[in-house]
Amino acid sequence: MVVSENVLKWAMRLYPPLFFQRIWVVRFDKDFRGVKVKINKSLINNNYNNSIFGGTIFAAADPFYPLLFHQVLTHKGYKVRVWMKSAAIQYLKPGRKDLFFTISIAETEIEEVQQVLKSGEKYIREHPVTMYDRDGELCVEMTCEIYIRNLNQSETKDSVSI
Fold first, then answer.
1. Exposure check for the chain: N or C terminus, fewer CB within 10 A?
2. Closest alpha carbon to 22 in 7, 48, 6, 43
3. Looking at per-residue confidence, does 156 or 90 come out higher?
């Protein structure tokens, strides 16, 4: 679905899995080239160590690369299937304060995706997410493996007729 940056920002802010974990979309960049997200530390997402629950941190990063790529490609006229195929996370320091992360997609990455999709292949690549606390200390490093397939390209399959 093609939407504006502002509509998607508010949809994600009110999306229950993010809203109830206090994950807040600060902004989507123009043309969906990036996003800034804040994880508010609260009683709701606090663990027994008085830091942000790891599941909340993981959930915060989960949807944004697929959303960005989907919106960029949909606005360019592609019909695509985009999802996060896998992820790896390293908790480097407990999130005892609000956490922030920014994701940016470079024009070269978008061009690479388009080339792969035009060739009939699937785009599967890892992309980084780094999260910092409000003092600028690195707390989390994550990689998200993103899968993109062009639904307008029919996949060729060997068929047998009997």
1. C
2. 43
3. 90
